Amino acid sequence: MADLLPFVTLSLTRRSAWREAAERLRRGSAAETVLELVLAGRGKDGPGYASRLRSRAAAAIQAGRSQRVTVVSWNDAAYPPALTTIADPPFVLWVRGIAASLSTPAVAIVGARAASPYALAVAERLAADLAGAGLTVVSGLARGVDSAAHRGAISAGGTTIGVLGSGIDVIYPPEHKPLVRDIEKSGAVISELVPGTVPQPRFFPMRNRIISGLTRAVVVIEAGEKSGSLITARCALEQGRDVLAVPGNVLSGRNRGAHALLRDGATIVESVDDILAELGMSPADRPVGANGCEERRRGGRAADPVLHCLTPGEPANLDEIAERSGLSPSRLLPRLFELELQGAIARVGGGRFVRVDSSC
């Protein structure tokens, strides 16, 4: 618990301190040191503020363990590297299901809660096709488009991740408990909020930055002018992710937000091929398996510019690899995921990567 406690305690501090805390962690400061600096600036909250937060954090860890919830902290090798690149990443993720699914190449599908039958059908079809292309589907477990996307990925035998705006043990909406159980079998349900946290309106915009942060692209389906999906799209743009939108009926008013995204330059989506093309993939693309071993041994790995930036036994973070390779973090992450699937690199704590010095 000693290593986990400062990260969980940081997650309970005021959000205004998160960006600076994240920057210090990126620079290599210990979590306990960062926490002490954050707490030192909160003297006006009273002399017992720090001890109260630590007590809450300890109780949350115990609650998570009693419920067999996996807690993935910033310095854990299982922490998704994509999230380390956003301005205010979660310090911990509470996970139900398969934690390894958080680091797979992913696309988010978001949209209206009170969705039309057309939007539900499109969300389910796109999610199934993305799953068939080997991509993980991320959404927010809300009614409407979100739940259709999760179900579409599951129906295709794929992986999906649901991001909650409540504690990991408080499923909202409650009728999605069976869906959560289905997601956990091959994917994950996650939250940055400590167990027992009830859903509040302010938590859902916070959750949206995680939905986009986990992914390579965000697809918006049927979003009104004030839709929460537009918050996710804005987060995606700020994080350097691609934003795509599905066109819809111009008479209903349900699609004005999505159409505004299209006018502003979002890529139009008519089929999964549009999404794959935006990601630089073809429908036949798959992670390289054992049958690609000989091709890599003949020079594929040696010629790779990302691998060339890494030295066996010397971990490097995304900023360092990006600087050496000349690639932006948003373009670098997909290649790192592919190299990890090939066994050419491995992740270590704090979103760092190290080259694996071994033959196929």
Task: Give a description of the structure.
Helices cover 42% and strands 14% of the residues. Helix 1 (5-11) runs parallel beside helix 3 (31-40), helix 1 (5-11) packs across helix 4 and helix 6 (117-132) runs parallel beside helix 7 (145-155). It has a 9-stranded mixed sheet with strand order 1-2-6-5-4-3-7-8-9, with helices on both faces. Helix 7 links the parallel strand 4 and strand 5. The chain has 16 helices and 12 strands. The protein has 360 residues and is of the alpha/beta class. The chain folds into 3 domains: 1-66, no CATH class; 99-278, Rossmann fold (3-Layer(aba) Sandwich), CATH 3.40.50; 290-355, Winged helix-like DNA-binding domain superfamily/Winged helix DNA-binding domain (Arc Repressor Mutant, subunit A, Orthogonal Bundle).
Low-pLDDT segments: 286-302
- General form: globular
Q: Helices and strands: which structural class?
A: alpha/beta
CATH C-level name of the largest domain: Alpha Beta
Number of DSSP-assigned strands: 12
Level-2 CATH architecture of the largest domain = 3-Layer(aba) Sandwich
Our Rg estimate from Cα atoms comes to 20 Å
Supply the number of helical segments: 16
Percent strand equals 5-15%
Give the % helix: 40-55%
Number of domains: 3
Main-sheet strand order equals 1-2-6-5-4-3-7-8-9
Biggest sheet layout: 9 strands, mixed
Q: Whole-number average pLDDT?
A: 86
CATH topology label of the largest domain: Rossmann fold
| End-to-end Cα distance | 37 Å
SSE order, one letter for each helix or strand: HHHHEHEEHEHEHEHEHEHEHHHEHHEE
